[in-house]
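Hello again, I could really use a second opinion on something today. I owe you a coffee for this, so here goes:
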Amino acid sequence: MRISGFTIARNAVRFGYPLEASLRSLLPLVDELVVAVGDCDDGTAELVAGIGDPKIKAFPTLWDPALREGGRILSQQTNLALERCTGDWGIYLQADEVLHEDGLAPLRRALERHLDDGTEGLRFPYLHFYGSFATVQDHPLKWYPSAVRAVRLGRGVESWGDALGFRMRLGDGRFRDLRTAPAGATVHHYGWVRPPRVMLEKQRNLDRFYHDDGWLEGEYRQQERRVRDFYADRGNLALFRGTHPATMAPAVAAQDWTFDHGIGSQPPDWLRHLRIALLYRLEVRLAKLKRRLSSKLRDRARESTGL
């Protein structure tokens, strides 16, 4: 069994992405690590080259500014890296995602177990760190609890949307979801752990791939208020009781900002989780009603046209 790793990187140094930690966390598992390095001048390419591992296969890319809507540039770049993978499996990590060394052996066993059983992807649970390295988000409806990060290569799998997930391309131009299984390893997501000012600039840069210049100007007009209020998604946080991946040790030790998590003033866990469960049931019910209404409207349209 041959395993490829793949990722994309651009302005990782400027915006504080833990890219080196992410790459180093994959290297013990993979036979090759394909890195699409976007056009930038902040030292990202030098950082990748400086790791000095012969498994790393970096190549330069250009980011098309026309692909801003919906974050499509992210999946387009991801697919460029995916196409260069030569293994049986491809393991994808974004530049702010890191694997724990304790999960590598279970992950390898899962890859071996599902190599020839028709599984097309492995789904990883997530830990979303927020505000600091000591706190995680604890709201599964607002923060995705899992994502596919391992895909079976050579079967038409592709990244789509803003590169959160993968899908299977069918021969007639349609798509379907992947047949997935548990990965046995957890992704540590550090996308929301930076000094507030760095976090603000990182998010502004990321928003450029979803919104036009007018939206950006209005959203980021009051810079100081945005810095002060940036980590405002509180009320469903939890203290992190585990250990960070070893490759993240330097970053964790270097945290030089404080974060008031406010966990002590949150409702008790049982009440928070009950509210989330009730909200989920309400959302499911509303979705069913919406589908029924859409179906009735289509039926009426057919009746009115005689079709």
Remarks:
- The chain has nine helices and 14 strands.
- The first helix runs from residue 19 to 26.
- The first strand starts at residue 3 and ends at 9.
- The two ends are 54 Å apart (CA to CA).
